[in-house]
TrEMBL record:
It is found in: Cell membrane. Residues 270-476 form the Histidine kinase domain. Keywords: ATP-binding, Cell membrane, Kinase, Membrane, Nucleotide-binding, Phosphoprotein, Transferase, Transmembrane, Transmembrane helix, Two-component regulatory system. It comes from the Bacteria. This is histidine kinase. Signal peptide: none annotated.
Length: 482
């Protein structure tokens, strides 16, 4: 049930009942007072003519009696006046009166007690108010009765009019009370409660950012403030839960990443075990052959073979280091030297005559990190670029704020979709034909760069082809972070 019906039930209804009782008792009191006034008026009239009527009755002067009665009747308030002897027989009258009181208990009581009596009676089918006075002679003996009557309808009409006016006033008072209640409720409470309910509905519909405006009486403001505090607490709890869920997601991703890296470590250890002995044999045979020949071209080729064996050995060792997540061995080096060394080493293992590698930047820029691991990362990136390119691969770098951005671009087909960049950085994902790639090159590069507090990202060039961007912190920023 709403607030207005409750106020009507527990406040207005009792007041209406009280108003009705006050009106009813007031009308009863007025009726009683009117009866007293009616009786008093008739008593005054009766006492005024009782002595002349008594003398005329003693003299048996009917003319005088009739004259006195007519004088009373002419007052206008009197409906009838009559004189009876003490046996109740009618002597004379004026107006409407009873003809015989010989059987009237009230008349008998007046004769016996000598005291006036009054009450409502029926005379010729009409309700009248009768007042009886005893008529005494000079010796104080009751010699007759004086009856004065007044129509009851005169009083009843006045009383009915007064009652209608009273009940109309009661009805008007009830309407005014209801109007004051409803208007006061709306102005003082109702509109603020409606605003509060509207705000609660908005929140229930999902608008959790909505807050109710604090207005209205102190109690309503306290309710609104409590609602807003509750919503703030819920929002903070939801944010905390969301943060926990995000942290849990990150932990799950890290767990997946560790599981992938564990798999990579197993592969790396297997590769190191399988390649270790053959590489040692190849290096030993090449060293022995170099001692048995003086041909310059043969010595150059054998030196190249030994160089590649050393590079493969170093790469296997770096792969093992990477799989064990060793700390970065930091030293200062020039980015130009690093890029040139990576391009040169890439030439030993690939025929890049059909693909030109252009280094368009020549500005010296010192970095801090592990040059051997970063070289491995650049070789893996360049290897993919050369394999995807049609004619050329371009390398350039520039400084942005506290970082150095290295861009490696090719003129190949580029990425099929933006989502492919994330897959290319995942272990064992490759776009090459079966047997041509392991899907570890970019993953190893990304983790090496991440260990150097850097970032690797893939995207397409505007004029076609793929762009790999490596961001590395500059020495001042790197030292500050460490």
């Amino acid at each position: 049930m709403g607030l207005q019906p409750l106020l009507t039930l527990y406040l207005v209804l009792p007041m209406v009942i009280i108003y009705a009782l006050v009106t009813w008792f007031g009308l009863a009191f007025v009726k009683q007072m009117a009866n007293e006034k009616l009786r008093s008026d008739l008593e005054l009239v009766g006492r005024a003519i009782r002595l002349p009527v008594s003398e005329a009755l003693a003299k048996n002067d009917l003319t005088a009696l009739q004259s006195n009665l007519e004088s009373v009747f002419s007052i206008g308030r009197v409906y009838g006046a009559s004189v009876f002897d003490k046996e109740g027989k009618l002597v004379t009258f004026s107006g409407v009166t009873e003809k015989d009181l010989s059987r009237s208990n009230m008349a008998e009581l007046v004769v016996q007690t000598g005291e006036q009596q009054d009450g409502y009676r029926s005379v010729e089918g009409r309700d009248v108010y009768s007042y009886f006075l005893p008529i005494t002679d000079r010796h104080g003996e009751v010699s007759g009765l004086l009856q004065i009557t007044r129509r009851a309808s005169d009083f009843e009409r006045s009383f009915d009019k007064l009652a209608r006016l009273a009940w109309l006033s009661w009805a008007g008072l009830v309407l005014v009370t209801l109007g004051i209640l409803f208007l006061g409720h709306h102005r003082a409470i109702g509109r603020y409660v409606s605003q509060l309910v509207s705000s609660m509905r908005r929140v229930a519909q999902g608008d959790h950012k909505h807050r109710a405006t604090e207005s209205g009486p102190r109690e309503i403001r306290e309710l609104i403030n409590g609602l807003n505090q509750m919503l703030d607490s819920i929002t903070a709890a939801e944010a905390e839960i969301s943060a926990h869920r995000h942290q849990e997601y990150l932990l799950q991703e890290q767990l997946k990443e560790k599981e992938k890296m564990a798999a990579i470590g197993q592969v790396a250890r297997g590769v190191a075990h399988e390649l270790g002995a053959p590489l040692t044999v190849i290096d030993g045979r090449a060293q022995r052959l170099s001692r048995q020949t003086d041909d310059a071209d043969s010595l150059r080729q054998l030196a190249a073979v030994r160089g590649q064996v050393k590079r493969l050995t170093r790469m296997v060792q770096q792969l093992l280091d990477f799989s064990r997540h060793q700390q970065v061995q930091t030293e200062k080096f020039d980015i130009t030297d690093l890029v040139n060394q990576a391009v040169e080493n890439l030439g030993y293992e690939m025929l890049i005559d059909s693909c030109k590698i252009d280094i368009t930047s020549s500005s010296a820029q010192m970095l801090i990190g592990d040059p051997q691991r970063l070289e491995l990362a650049l070789i893996n990136i360049l290897r993919n670029a050369v394999q995807a390119a049609q004619n050329a691969v371009t390398i350039h770098w520039h400084q942005v704020a506290e970082s150095l951005l290295i861009h490696i671009e090719d003129d190949g087909p580029g990425l099929a979709t933006p989502q492919q960049s994330e897959k290319l950085l995942s272990p064992f994902y490759t776009t090459k034909n079966q047997g041509e790639g392991t899907g570890l090159g970019l993953t190893i590069a990304a983790h090496i760069i991440k260990d150097h507090r850097g970032e690797l990202s893939l995207g397409n060039r505007k004029n076609g082809g793929c762009r790999v961007t490596v961001r590395l912190p500059l020495p001042e920023h790197s030292e500050h972070e460490s």
